Amino acid sequence: MSTAIAPLPAALAAAHRARTIADFIREQPNHDAALPQLLTAAADVFAAEPPSVLDGITITNDVPADALFPLWKADEIAAETPSSGLPENFTDYVLAPVFRRPLPFPDAVHARSVQLARQQHVLRDRLTSVHETLNAHPLDTSDRTTALIRTALALHAGLAHHADIIRLDNTRPCYHR
Fold first, then answer.
1. Which of 24, 44, 126, 173 keeps 20 to 30 A from 16, CA to CA?
2. Angle, nearest 10°, between helix axes 92-99 and 9-26?
3. CA 134, CA 171: separation in Å to the nearest integer?
4. Beta carbons within 10 angstroms of residue 103's beta carbon
5. 3-state DSSP call for residue 53?
6. pLDDT class of 177 with cuts at 50, 70, 90
């Protein structure tokens, strides 16, 4: 008699995060319809697939192969579509409960304006705080995690927009004497 193994908490957390991001993308204007479909497909696999077992040992940091392709493709589409507002490697938010890898964080843009530098610093501090909370509770699937993921994605979009403003502001003639 064999007993089916249920998906591990890390896989269920990954499924929750994938669905949260898919819902977030669906709410964005002019989104690529393939992105939420790919994320939902990955979420369905995470929620249904039992963990791998090797020589009687349950592998806890494994991603089902059927979830990897949709996540890879979603990252690729987002990278080819900067207007999506998604950060590079945004699916790391999905995989974080499984691999405990660092969450995506944009590079700072050197601002010549003190005010713009200060604004960027505030946004980066907020994103750091969100990441710290997500990292402290990687297996959480509550509304708190949903809100944190949505906040992180919104902060990434805000930081990308702010970086564009900084780059434009840095070209002002007053900085080039």
1. 126
2. 170
3. 37
4. 20
5. strand
6. low
